[in-house]
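Changelog-adjacent note: as of this version, every example in the card shows the full chain rather than a window. The one below runs 336 residues end to end.
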Amino acid sequence: MNSATSTTETVELSLLELTELVTAALTALGLSEDEQHIVAKVLLWAELRGNSQGLGKIPARAVAPSPDAGEISVTHRSPVVTQIDGNLNLGMVVMERAVDEVVRSAKNAGVGIVGTRGTTTSTGAIGYFTERVAELGLVCIIFGGTPKAVAPFGSVDSVFGTNPLSFAIPTSDGPLLVDMGTSAATWFGLLRSERLGEAISSDLAFDASGAATTDPGEALRGAIRAFGGAKGSALALLIEVLSGPLAGGAIAGDDSHQSGNLIIALDPDLFGFGSDFSQRTSALIERIRNSRPVPGTDHPVIPGERSRAIFEETTRSGRVELDKNLVDAIHAVANE
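Full-length structure tokens:
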């Protein structure tokens, strides 16, 4: 659920109305029924949590299938490691297949590792997939490669992708979830700011000439900074290696049709803790929650709690408030 500014006109829809609209738009974009089912789940999962990887992908045509797509194929399989060639299929569809494979390996061998390549579109909010795996009692980590958009620390040229990572860990109160990019701003967050005519902070991105910019459109044509300076840039480099050279994906985003991802799943039983692992993790989270907050704040922040609260409130009410321009843009796609 995108938060609205005071100058943004909003519209309220029921979750049923929104689902029907999304399905109509995905149909117009040419997705099969199976593809629609997967993509709609991932997009709505993100939108209803305030994640930037949501419905903005529809008017941006970031979920349009390639006419050259073939069959998704497994090119290598061992008890632990599987390699998947997406063969120009939608990123979310390929990730769904990868999750099935990584769960199979982790359940059988205690560890599952899957590399994917050959996806033409975004995998969406990878937290959707890590959470799905954690709900089965497994620890899951996903490293996502994306087209180049981010400048390494000390540079003004886009070399890295926004390179998201997500991990989800079983606890006795549901999965502990972290879903984050390694860029100072997300690509679709910049698209949203451009659509709304909002300025961005001058420390987030460079324009094409290498100068700092507050214009999100110029940032999209230039380079986003890595978050956290040199440390964030180093993490982005790690993900670039794992999703590119290791998984067989594009190196530095040179080929947008070969985005790579790496998915890892671990069975806690492998370490001899079994269900006790979830309880021990919950005890750790409770220790964080009960620690002293920074003066002027209510409590320490637990990753994923805010987005989870947004989702629970939205599903409880059965309605969602969205930027009217976004809804109109999705209607325009649906009516094509």
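Structural remarks: The domain at 72-183+226-289 is CATH 3.30.1370.60 (Ribosomal Protein S8; Chain: A, domain 1).
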